[in-house]
Amino acid sequence: MKHIQVRSQQRLYPVISREVRKATIILMDELLQTNAYDLNILFVNETRMAKINLEHLRHEGATDIITFDYTTPTLLHGDLIICPHVASENAARYRVSLGHEITRNIIHGVLHLLGYDDSKSIVLENMKRAENRLLQKLALRFPLNSLAHG
Fold first, then answer.
1. pTM tops 0.85
2. CA distance 63 to 57
3. Which residue, of 44, 54, 69, 95, has the fewest CB within 10 Å?
4. CB 26 within 8 Å of CB 141
5. How many CB atoms lie within 10 A of CB 137?
6. How many CB atoms are closer than 10 A to CB 147?
7. Which domains does the chain have, with CATH numbers?
């Protein structure tokens, strides 16, 4: 099974679901060579993200991405909840496009599903290196700016 669903439940930042799906397929099939996956990518507004963050992680405020992992030994499965508003703030801070930052969020979420951890500084460095490597490789294969406008 290879399945990716992309939905946007926010209106402030136009996210191009078709392009998000294409980029994610390249990530999963070509770069990670994943045999079976079921991903749901959901874009939400700042208020909804803050509510999800508080309910599930007990953290105050909105964040850029939250990953819910349902992976089994035979299926990489999860929900990636992304807040384009926070991603846009990060994009401005790092001087990259919103599409670039959303791609980084997707890669970050998928790495969590693959078992990467960012809770401690030593393992965060490994995750960040993998994230940067995949982002660079994906950028060579797909125009990241096409994922979103804003």
1. yes
2. 11
3. 95
4. yes
5. 15
6. 28
7. 2-147 (3.40.390.30)
